[in-house]
């Protein structure tokens, strides 16, 4: 190998992001999009009128959720805040320990979604740690959610598909599957 080739290889190794950085970039993008979309919803939507996008099946309508999914636990917002903060901490640890790009991206989406809703719980009215989550994506008469909720679903789907592929490859006896193998360089 020539000196130029070895210099290029060394530069490439140094330019690679650690996997956890990918998770934090994904999470940061989700939080940014989530918080900007919530600000736009607060500025332009109503709690009483729905803007239909797909007939009665999907639209935009402002709502404030003191509880978890489907309003569960609405009388225990402070407890949901504590659980959310704990989940964010656990997801940070999971992101650092992730061994594959699939897991890292999936955890990044889940971390971003959790952070987006925890930010509301910490800082939105009615007060610190008791804030209501801003929702605006109306799914028929079922429920109203937000971008953070969508990110949670995407992350769970990525992890489920990754697990399914990993197990399927393991059942065939393949070594070093695309999802489970970690590179010796520690990068992507």
TrEMBL record:
Top-level taxon of origin: Bacteria
- Name of the protein in question: Lipoprotein signal peptidase
Keyword Transmembrane helix among UniProt keywords: yes
- Lineage, highest ranks first: Bacteria, Bacillati, Actinomycetota, Actinomycetes, Micrococcales
**Transmembrane stretches, by residue range?**
20-43, 63-94, 101-123, 143-165
> What is the E.C. number?
3.4.23.36
Q: Describe its membrane topology.
A: Multi-pass membrane protein
Q: Does the keyword Mitochondrion apply?
A: no
Which residues does UniProt call coiled coil?
none
Q: Per UniProt, which keywords does this protein have?
A: Aspartyl protease, Cell membrane, Hydrolase, Membrane, Protease, Transmembrane, Transmembrane helix
> Where located?
Cell membrane
What is the stated purpose of this protein?
Answer: This protein specifically catalyzes the removal of signal peptides from prolipoproteins.
Name the family: Belongs to the peptidase A8 family.
List the catalytic activities from the record.
Answer: Release of signal peptides from bacterial membrane prolipoproteins. Hydrolyzes -Xaa-Yaa-Zaa-|-(S,diacylglyceryl)Cys-, in which Xaa is hydrophobic (preferably Leu), and Yaa (Ala or Ser) and Zaa (Gly or Ala) have small, neutral side chains
Pathway participation: Protein modification; lipoprotein biosynthesis (signal peptide cleavage)
Report the source organism: Microbacterium insulae
The active site lies at 135, 149
| PANTHER family reported in the protein's UniProt record | LIPOPROTEIN SIGNAL PEPTIDASE (PTHR33695)
């Amino acid at each position: 190998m020539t000196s130029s080739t070895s210099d290029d290889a060394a530069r490439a190794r140094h330019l690679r992001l650690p996997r956890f950085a990918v998770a934090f970039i994904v999470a940061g993008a989700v939080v940014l999009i989530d918080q900007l979309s919530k600000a736009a919803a607060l500025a332009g939507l109503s709690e009483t009128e729905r803007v239909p996008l797909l007939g009665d099946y999907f639209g935009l309508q402002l709502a404030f959720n003191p509880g978890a999914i489907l309003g569960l636990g609405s009388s225990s917002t402070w407890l949901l805040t504590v659980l959310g903060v704990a989940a964010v901490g656990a997801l940070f640890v999971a992101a650092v320990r992730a061994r594959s790009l699939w897991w890292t991206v999936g955890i990044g989406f889940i971390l971003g979604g959790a952070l987006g809703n925890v930010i509301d719980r910490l800082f939105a009215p009615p007060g610190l740690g008791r804030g209501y989550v801003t929702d605006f994506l109306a799914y028929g008469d079922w429920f109203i959610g937000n971008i953070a909720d969508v990110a949670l679903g995407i992350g769970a789907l990525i992890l489920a598909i990754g697990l399914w592929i990993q197990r399927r490859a393991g059942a065939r006896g393949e070594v070093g599957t695309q999802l489970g193998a970690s590179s010796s360089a520690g990068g992507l």
